Amino acid sequence: MKIITIKDVEHIAFRLAKEMLSYNEPIPDFSTRFPNILESCLITPF
């Protein structure tokens, strides 16, 4: 079983935003998210 890392999520989120945005607005920096929330969600299943 492969554990999903923060780097994996960042890459996926960036790719999805790039593909799905229909207007020319900059993609927010990934570091603007709430700290430790995503890490907690990713580690909980393991």
Structure summarized in a few sentences:
With 46 residues, the chain is mainly alpha-helical.
Structure description:
By secondary structure, the chain is mainly α. The chain has one domain. Helices cover 48% and strands 0% of the residues. It has two helices and no strands. The longest helix is centred in the first third of the chain and has 15 residues. The radius of gyration is 12 Å and the shape is elongated. The termini are close together. 0% of the residues are buried. The model has no long low-confidence stretch (mean pLDDT 82).
Q: Please give the alpha-carbon distance between the first and last residues.
A: 10 Å
Quick one: how many beta strands?
0
The topology string of helices and strands comes to HH
- Number of helices, where a helix is a run of at least 4 consecutive DSSP H or I residues: 2
Proportion of strand residues: under 5%
Shape: elongated
Radius of gyration: 12 Å
Low-confidence stretches: none
Map the helices and strands.
Blueprint: H1 6-20, H2 37-43
Observed structural traits:
single chain; 46 residues; mainly alpha
